[in-house]
Design a protein that fits this description.
Blueprint lengths: L11 H8 L1 H39 L2 H4 L1 E6 L7 H7 L2 H13 L13 E6 L3 E2 L14 E5 L4 H4 E6 L14 E7 H7 L6 E5 L5 E12 L5 H4 L8 E5 L6 E9 L5 H4 L6 E7 L11 H13 L1 H10 L4 E3 L2 H44 L1 H9 L4 H30 L6 H25 L19 H24 L9 H4 L1 H16 L1 H11 L6 H10 L6 H36 L3 E5 L8 H8 L6 E11 L14 E6 L1 H11 L23 E6 L1 H7 L4 E5 L2 E10 L11 E5 L10 E5 L5 H10 L4 E5 H7 L4 H31 L1 H13 L4 H34 L6 H4 L18 H29 L1 H4 L7
Helix pairs in contact: 1-14, 2-12, 2-14, 2-15, 2-27, 5-11, 10-11, 12-15, 12-21, 12-27, 14-15, 16-18, 18-21, 18-29, 19-20, 20-29, 21-26, 21-27, 21-29, 21-31, 27-31, 28-31, 29-31
């Protein structure tokens, strides 16, 4: 009789996935989102740093970002033929090709905007009588033979300048072109001739053959030396009243350069290289700085001298641009790291909670396998394979989405981030199983939070974390986030450590109010309250992990919101400092008075709610100090109406003061230099004046002032040295600035009123000034990361609540089924589950609010957001510092979301359990 063949066992992984497809899909989705965030963060940092570098180099003026290699004219010791050959077009083009080829990496030239040629370094005066002479001074002209004129300009009138035959040092006439702006300002027409003196007795005639218009006036070709396209009025140095004269440039063909060697204009050769920034990344900054230094005075310069001559030199301001870029990046990077550490910690905790949920749901199954002889290695290997089947594809998909979403960044940091998520997920369940099932278990002891007693090891660990948290907060408050030496992870982890300590403290304190509430509720007649608190007290002692996730997530969201609020507040403050009010109207120049008609027209404009007329006089001399030193710059004298100006100062928050203390006594009396006028002064002026009255001599009048109050800011000026007095004390009164307040001020209407008055007035609105503080790519990238931190923090907080409730969902469902057999209604069941989950939800929400607020208060002195808010650095712009600002929305909304989600899950579970019925839940032999 033949034996029956053994039946093949179903594969473990396939069986498990078919048994719980919904849980596997949810688990894969969690891994995908977390892997995407872990991979997208380093790529986002790389992307915004690269875009910031290109933005800084690309938006810098061509005069700053070009590299100019220049040298003097060929030596006089050479024969004339050799000198002429050295400046001809073919020689200059050959040298240009070698120069571009020898640029050290990663520098590349933008050949479309690069140029070379010969120019007269000393402008030559033009004697022609038809030139305009505003102050009776002859204009001076620079003669340039820049390459590629026909490719960068459009011919408007005449013909392109050209050479006829071979031009030499003895040539008597050459052709030239001028731009439209030059032709209009200097009244140049085609056919005009200009006599240029030479070193001999002859003159060089330059004939204007064409008028051109630049195709790209803002490009490096025209803007590296703006004189090529736009003439300028230059003041002649003199001790008397300044006298101005015109200076302009004439464009000669490249082969006409030999003719310039005979002029007294000290010709020089130049090769102007416009950098190509399209390929540069943030990783190229160190090499780029080294290359620039090498070209300015190192091996790179020696290589250039080998092809362009031993006397050439390289000049550029690229190193200054890179220094500013590094300063902003080093200031923003630690602030961004705080968000990354916070969200990373929350993600790790949530992933560990997910592993704990899976392990608790399968505890009976794994305990049975262990009791029947299953080895830890075998069980762990099966769990690892089961987890990897869903986690690895999900992590790879998350990495792919991050690569597709965020471009122009390195791949390996993103791969490391996504790989770390997959490795953590795959290791969490096997390791937890190995720790729980080292020995076969037949019964699980209760692990109630209310009755648990922390071990000595746990106490030592908690004290260690407390010391680390205190040290991190102290270091952050003392050193700040932009300390030298790069990013300090301990300092960046300060919010996380504060949340961790708060979670430990709250878990230890949680049983105390619960016991007190249980005693009070036990005296009531209803059973719902007592059962709910009793169930809440039986929460597992491992509840520290969900609470930690919630507190860190809420703290990170609150910190991110405070960063964004601080940035917005700093920009608002900078706009207020720039204008002093909602709108500012001034004359065409400093201290130019505004007419009474213009002032009335502005005050009657639509939307104007209030106005303050101000008289400003700059450079008022202060009395000499006690040591005899005199302030050469002087101070700013401001005359105001005390009532309106005090109201303006209160509304803007710029140095509020009492109007009564500033009123001048005896206003309107005859002028008297001995009268004492109360003054509102800046700290620097207060130090100079002291407590005694000191005399001032100004155009507005002569009198003595006495400091009655000191403020650091005032709406009329944005300087740090000023004196504010009652304008009624002035002998010569006038309005030089008008400060307007109101909602919805129309810039067009205000400027139209200024034009109708027939005066040249400047109108500056605070809303327009606020709009000028646009984000650079680096600033906007950091802000987007913090916005993502807020959203991710809130999402992970809600997910932590959901996971903690799902972990005990089967137990609560069974409890409801048993209680329904005793007469519990569906409504009472919903109240029971809601009241049971409410204590922990309130603990997490209130704890998150307090911890978030305390974290912001503790860390605010050490976090300076001025680089993130403004393009200028700390102390160099309108603001010296920009601290964190508490954002109520980011504090309250996630905390409310925790409570709402907890109640919603409890209600849905009670409703679902009521539909299934008690018999379905209470099966015979069920051990739950």
């Amino acid at each position: 009789m033949r034996a029956r063949p053994a039946t093949a066992c179903a594969p473990w992984v396939r069986t498990r996935l078919r048994t719980a497809p919904g849980a596997a899909c949810a688990f894969a989705l969690l891994v995908l989102v977390t892997a995407f965030l872990a991979a997208a963060f380093p790529r986002s940092v790389d992307a915004y740093e690269t875009k910031g570098l290109r933005h800084d180099l690309g938006t810098a003026t061509p005069a700053h970002n070009v590299l100019e290699l220049k040298g003097p004219q060929p030596g006089l010791e050479l024969r004339p033929a050799a000198r002429e050959a050295a400046v001809r077009e073919d020689t200059m083009a050959s040298v240009d090709a070698q120069v571009l080829k020898r640029l050290p990496a990663p520098l590349r030239a933008d050949t479309a905007e690069s140029a070379y040629g010969v120019r007269t370094s000393t402008p030559i005066a033009a004697q022609e009588p038809w030139f305009p002479r505003p102050f009776g001074l002859d204009p001076t002209l620079t003669y340039v033979t820049q390459s590629g004129l026909s490719s960068h300009a459009t011919l408007r009138t005449g013909s392109w300048p050209a050479t006829h035959g071979t031009v030499s040092m003895t040539t008597g006439e050459v052709e030239a072109a001028v731009t439209e702006e030059t032709a209009k300002a200097l009244r140049i027409k085609t056919g005009a001739t200009i006599a240029v003196p030479t070193r001999g007795d002859d003159t060089l005639t330059v004939r204007i053959t064409g008028i051109v218009a630049p195709k790209n006036p803002a490009g490096s070709y025209w803007s590296a030396e703006p004189l090529l396209r736009t003439p300028s009025l230059v003041a002649k140095p003199t001790k008397d009243t300044p006298r101005y004269y015109w200076i302009a440039a004439l464009l000669l063909p490249p082969d006409a350069a030999p003719a310039l060697l005979s002029t007294p204009g000290q010709p020089e050769l130049y090769w102007r290289i416009a950098p190509d920034v399209s390929h540069l990344t943030a990783l190229d900054v160190p090499r780029l700085r080294t290359s620039v230094a090498s070209l300015e005075g190192g091996p790179g310069l020696l290589a250039m001298r080998d092809v362009a001559g031993a006397t050439v030199s390289m000049a550029t301001d690229l190193d200054e641009i890179l220094t500013g870029y590094d300063g902003m990046r080093s200031a923003i990077q630690p602030v961004v790291t705080v968000a990354a550490v916070g969200i990373g910690t929350v993600a790790v905790v949530v992933l560990l909670m997910t592993g704990g949920l899976l392990a608790s749901r399968r505890h009976a199954e794994l305990a049975l396998l262990r009791a029947r002889g299953g080895s830890l290695r075998g069980i762990g290997g099966r769990l690892l394979a089961e987890t990897a089947v869903t986690a690895v594809p999900a992590g790879a998909l998350g990495l792919l989405l991050a690569v597709l979403t965020v471009g122009e960044a390195r791949l390996w940091p993103a791969a490391v981030g996504a790989g770390a998520v997959v490795a953590l997920v795959c290791a969490a369940l096997p390791l937890r199983t190995a720790l729980q099932h080292r020995t076969p278990q037949t019964h699980i002891a209760r692990d109630d939070l209310a009755t648990a007693r922390p071990s000595r090891r746990r106490t030592v660990a908690e004290l260690t974390l407390l010391v680390l948290a205190v040290g991190a907060v102290f270091a952050l408050r003392r050193r700040g986030t932009d300390a030298e030496g790069g990013t300090d992870l301990l300092v960046s982890a300060a919010p996380v450590l504060v949340g961790l300590i708060a979670a430990v403290v709250l878990v230890r304190l949680y049983p105390l109010p619960l016991r007190l509430a249980l005693r009070s509720v036990s005296r009531l007649r209803g059973a719902i309250g007592f059962l709910s608190l009793a169930r809440a007290g039986r929460t597992s002692a491992s509840g520290t992990l969900p609470l930690l996730a919630l507190l860190v997530a809420l703290t990170t969201a609150a910190f991110g919101g405070s960063v964004l609020a601080g940035v917005a507040h700093a920009r608002d403050d900078a706009a207020v400092l720039a204008t002093g009010a909602d709108a500012r109207v001034t004359g065409a120049a400093d201290s130019v008075p505004l007419s009474a008609g213009l002032v009335r027209a502005m005050e009657r404009a639509e939307g104007v709610r209030g106005s303050a007329r101000v008289q400003v006089e700059f450079g008022v001399a202060l009395p000499a100090a006690d040591n005899g030193t005199q302030d050469a710059k002087g101070t700013t004298l401001i005359g105001v109406d005390p009532a309106t100006y005090a109201a303006l100062a209160r509304s803007t928050g710029l140095g509020p003061f009492s109007a009564d203390g500033l009123r001048a006594k005896g206003a309107g009396a005859a002028p008297d230099e001995d009268r004492v006028v109360p003054a509102l002064v800046s700290p620097s002026v207060a130090e100079r004046l002291g407590d005694r009255p000191l005399g001032l001599r100004s155009l507005a009048g002569n009198f003595k002032v006495k400091a009655v109050a000191t403020v650091t800011r005032t709406p009329a000026v944005d300087g740090s040295s000023f004196i504010v007095v009652d304008a009624a004390a002035f002998t010569h009164r006038q309005t030089t600035a008008l400060l307007l307040t109101g909602d919805g001020l129309d810039a067009r209407e205000l400027r139209a009123a200024a034009r109708h008055s027939g005066e040249k007035a400047a109108v500056q609105l605070r809303s327009e000034e606020r709009a000028t503080y646009v984000d650079t790519p680096m600033q906007s990238g950091a802000e987007r990361i913090y916005l993502a931190a807020i959203i991710a923090g809130a999402g992970y907080a809600l997910l932590a609540v959901l996971l903690s409730l799902l972990q005990t969902a089967p137990e609560r469902t069974t409890l409801l089924a048993r209680l329904r057999t005793m007469g519990l209604t569906s409504r009472q069941g919903g109240r029971l589950l809601g009241f049971e989950a409410l204590p922990q939800a309130l603990l997490a929400a209130c704890g998150g609010l307090l911890v978030g607020w305390a974290t912001i208060a503790l860390l605010a002195p050490g976090v300076d957001l001025v680089h993130l808010a403004l393009s200028s650095g700390s102390g160099t712009g309108p603001l010296e510092t920009a601290p964190l600002r508490t954002d109520l929305w980011s504090l309250v909304l996630p905390a409310l979301g925790v409570i709402v989600l907890t109640g919603a899950v409890a209600g849905v579970q009670a409703w679902w359990a009521g539909r299934r019925g008690s018999i379905t839940e209470l099966r015979a032999g069920d051990s739950r």
